[in-house]
């Protein structure tokens, strides 16, 4: 396979970890950051100490603060900006992006102002069809990928040639395995909503509720993800895969999960503003809770865990009150509840949705 010139925007923890995978595969990587001090540290010391302390980056990665320098000769561009910044970063990159450049993103969230998925935001700002944009998602902590721990993810695009091109860029025999999937809506929805459930898992653990409660939260959280995803047009089978249950498990159970840590701090009584300040990095689940709360209403989907977390985050409800509200819900049938959002999609899933 011919080695490629790849731009990675931006140099956070996940962008840096994926830049390592690309460099390990022999690609020439330009890692863009707005911060000149960070760029200098990466280039001189081969470190990105704020986001991945202790990790040494390979020589194939060059940091730059000039987005034109990063993008203008790139054969592939990987967007890893926070959801709140994706439109702005895409707008800056657009004038320098060639029409044949492969576009990939690895951001898990919605644009809360418009409720749009990241692939839609990119298509709008880059002036290209959404069908050719690739989504990278799955169970993958930057702290493990940077240390070359075995990881398996999925790349999704309606254009299978684009998905396979991204698969070729990232996959290696040493530690990074990549599957393809045509269900962009399902992969993006699962990646975004699982952060909400991880906030809930952190709350549960912070309150000392134990494994029974967390197992229930993860399982019922998956049902919420699947209901909303099916209502938005996703293939329900996607939620049984890496982007669904796989990513949900790792985000709800790992010490590396920002969303889990934020939920745990909230359970200790810290106000949301202080939690976010202490984290020092983006906690996508907070913004996504706002978006999902509105999306659930828009699509007529029940999302009780999401609703209660919305009340905790933004309406002053205590975590204990939220647990009481969930436990006191009207009794129902498990399979009927899961299938209620879109029975036809569950019972007769159509390939390629």
Give a verbal description of the structure.
- This protein is of the alpha/beta class and 353 residues long.
- The chain has two domains: 5-182, NAD(P)-binding Rossmann-like Domain (Rossmann fold, 3-Layer(aba) Sandwich), CATH 3.40.50; 185-347, N-(1-d-carboxylethyl)-l-norvaline Dehydrogenase, domain 2, CATH 1.10.1040.10.
- 52% of the residues lie in helices and 12% in strands.
- The protein contains 17 helices and ten strands.
- The chain has helices at residues 13-24, 36-45, 67-71, 86-93, 118-126, 142-145, 160-170, 184-206, 210-232, 242-253, 258-267, 272-279, 284-299, 304-314, 319-327, 334-339, 343-347, and strands at 5-9, 28-32, 61-64, 76-79, 102-105, 110-111, 116-117, 134-137, 151-156, 176-181.
- The strands form two sheets. Strands 3-2-1-4-5-8-9-10 form an eight-stranded mixed beta sheet, with helices on both faces. It has a two-stranded antiparallel sheet with strand order 6-7.
- Helix 8 packs antiparallel against helix 9 (210-232), helix 8 (184-206) packs parallel to helix 10 (242-253) and helix 8 (184-206) crosses helix 13 (284-299).
- The radius of gyration is 20 Å and the shape is globular.
